[in-house]
Amino acid sequence: MGLTSLDNPEQFPVKCCREELPLEDVVSTMGTRNRKRYISRTEEQAVPADERIYCPRAKCGQWIHPNSKGPRPGTRLCTQCRAKVCCACREFAHGPWPCADDESLKTVLDMAKDNKWQRCTKCHYMVEKVDGCNHILCRCGYHFWYV
C-alpha cells in the first residue's frame, strides 16, 4: 500500500478504514529509498498546495522543501538537479531582474498555448492531456478541468 500511494496522490497518505496510518508504521515496511520518498511526500503534503514550489526543469519537477535556501534571498535550490528557483514566479531564478521580464517563460507559455497545454492553477505545473476525460489530478493534489 505504501509504495502504491507514492505514485498516486489519491491514495496518499496510506489509510485504513479512512484513518491515516502512523508514519512510523508505514515506513517501517519500506526500504531506505522508498522510506525517504514517503517521508518527503508527507512533508510535501503538509505544505498548502498553493505554497509548494516545484523545480521548473522539465526532466526534474522535484518538490523543493521550504527549508531549501537558494544562493539569493527569494530563491530556493532544487536538491535533485541543483537548479535555482525564484520563489515569486516559481520559474528559474533570474537574478535581480523582475519576474515579468523572463523571456524564456513567455516563450514556454506561447508554446503551451500553441500545443494546447495548460498549467495547474495551484502549483503552475504544465500538463498535457493525452487522452481520457477532461478532469485532471495534478501532482500537487489539486483537481481541475482541462478546457
Automatic annotation (TrEMBL):
EC number: 2.3.2.31
UniProt keyword annotations, A-Z: Metal-binding, Repeat, Transferase, Ubl conjugation pathway, Zinc, Zinc-finger
UniProt protein name: RBR-type E3 ubiquitin transferase
Superkingdom assignment: Eukaryota
SUPFAM superfamilies (UniProt xref): RING/U-box
RING-type domain: residues covered: 1-147
Sample GO molecular function, one term: zinc ion binding
InterPro entries attached to this UniProt entry: E3_UB_ligase_RBR, IBR_dom, TRIAD_supradom
PANTHER family named in the record: RBR FAMILY RING FINGER AND IBR DOMAIN-CONTAINING
Pfam families the UniProt entry points to: IBR, Rcat_RNF216
Reaction catalysed by this enzyme: [E2 ubiquitin-conjugating enzyme]-S-ubiquitinyl-L-cysteine + [acceptor protein]-L-lysine = [E2 ubiquitin-conjugating enzyme]-L-cysteine + [acceptor protein]-N(6)-ubiquitinyl-L-lysine
GO biological process: protein ubiquitination
Source species of the chain: Penicillium salamii
